[in-house]
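For consistency, the fold was encoded as tokens, which produced the following:
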Amino acid sequence: MAKDFFEKKRPWSKYKDLILGYYLEPYLPKVDKLRKPILIVDCFAGPGQFKDGSPGSPLIICRAIKKWSDKGVRVSGIFIEADDALFSRLQSSLQQYGPLAKPRLGTFELQLPELAALAKSNSVFLYVDPYSVDNLRFAEMRRVYEQIQKAAASVEVLMNFNAAIFMRWGLAALKRRAENTNFDFLIDFPKDDDDEFVGVPDDLMNGPEITALNAIAGGDYWQEIALDPADTFSGKLERFMTEYQKLMSSSFKWVGSCAIKSRIDDHVPKYYLVYATRSHHGIELMNEAMCKARSEFLKNELPLFSQDTPFEEFDIQKLCADVVGLAKERTVFTRGELRLEGMKQFFGMYAAKDYNRAVKALLEGTRLFSKTGKHRINDEVPLSKIPFG
């Protein structure tokens, strides 16, 4: 971790924090209906606050905990940090929240027995925001998910995964192996779409070896992706994340990700936010949080986006075409079913109101038909691509 990591919050970190805050606001009262206490676990908490005064994830989480605890929701947080100096700052940051916030010194893995025990009586939300992907060994992460799920708890995960640094480490490791075994055809790797990465930078040549990268990825499937000469760097990242999410699906009913970029027009994201849940309510809440955060940044022209990039406009025609595509294999369906399927395929791209607008436009244009014959409908009204009766 860079020494200045917690000096000043970077713009793309602010974007991530917006998503976290927007999600917790509806999540806490929603999951409270399960009538279990709620436990939020910040797995790589850091100091709680940046030196520039910006709140870190522990304070964002604690503010939500305090608000809903005051309203009668049974919620608390555990905040895990392995670095002694950062942990000392974390303790000071959390002191004002008393028993609602419990700091823990040590690694995430060492806290597993306590988390598994607490999951027997708590709904659990894991916020996984490591300093680097080398802290995310897949088998250990899966052990956490499955231990909690064995306790029959509601469990959801929001994870920051830096696929770009993983792939660059992977290319560097493959290059080292190629040079050691005279596989000359593996040495020249393609540059990324923004010309920011050409070949393998010298400062990556001391990164993790292939065995360690396999452990992070949960297998060696990434190597074939990395070595594909026909794909762009951003294409490799998308394919890698698709395969990584498939592995997570062994522990969750649904997994999706949203690419967080430093500029709207960048091809290579700073990182991916990966979300996993067993509930369709979770998908809807997180999708709305991601859309709301994105809209907030666009509206305020924050530095995350380049000043010379035009604002994206909502394209109703494109979404209408996407919605028709979602209905392609269905005979009768509802707006709610179409919207949920859309959120799965286009996670974080369109808000619920956008899907509703698109369905209304399709009804008005007679590209879809409702059983009531009306254009203004609710989520349960049957729809079809041909007229009813």
Summary: Residues 11-163+215-300 form a domain with the Rossmann fold fold (CATH 3.40.50.150). Residues 182-203, 301-311 have pLDDT under 50 and may be disordered. The CA atoms of residues 90 and 215 lie 29 Å apart. The first strand starts at residue 38 and ends at 42.
